[in-house]
């Protein structure tokens, strides 16, 4: 089993998100809507964030992937403007960026990756070491 990098207590996880949001910070993560898109993002972030740990998982739809950048087992938080700039630069989902710009103006939490969506659960987090891991993933319409 891979190292768990989030707080397992949901209340603690949400408290941390709330506090970081209060001071203008958000986690650095990415969302890809397809395997092809995931390979493009993974290629870029593996090169740029080679001194960090990158985790990935299948999204709840089973068609896309999520990525999160961590250091020493904890998600990297940066100022929200920087998060949006990096997500745009590394080709995060355009619709997600657009929605987060609106959320940010309202003072709300951004960079959310849902564990559940439409009653479907996202996959387990795995450490991303190379592109072949994404390339080998079997795609289906089934969720986890």
Textual characterization of the structure:
- It is a single chain.
- The chain has helices at residues 10-22, 35-48, 80-89, 94-105, 131-135; strands at residues 25-27, 29-32, 53-58, 65-71, 74-75, 77-79, 116-117, 120-121, 126-127.
- Helices cover 38% and strands 22% of the residues.
- Residues 1-8 have low confidence and may be disordered.
- The relative contact order is 0.22.
- The protein has one domain (10-128).
- With 144 residues, it is α+β, with helices and mostly antiparallel strands.
Outline of this structure?
The protein is an alpha+beta fold. It has one domain. It contains five helices and nine strands.
Estimate what percentage of residues fall within beta strands. 15-25%
Give the number of DSSP strands: 9
The biggest sheet amounts to: 5 strands, antiparallel
- Total helices: the number is 5
Give the helix/strand class.
alpha+beta
Q: Outline the low-pLDDT stretches.
A: 1-8
Helix content: 25-40%
Give the rounded overall mean pLDDT.
89
Termini Cα gap: 16 Å
Order of helices and strands: HEEHEEEEHHEEEH
**Radius of gyration (Å):** 14 Å
The figure for the number of domains is 1
Overall geometry comes to globular
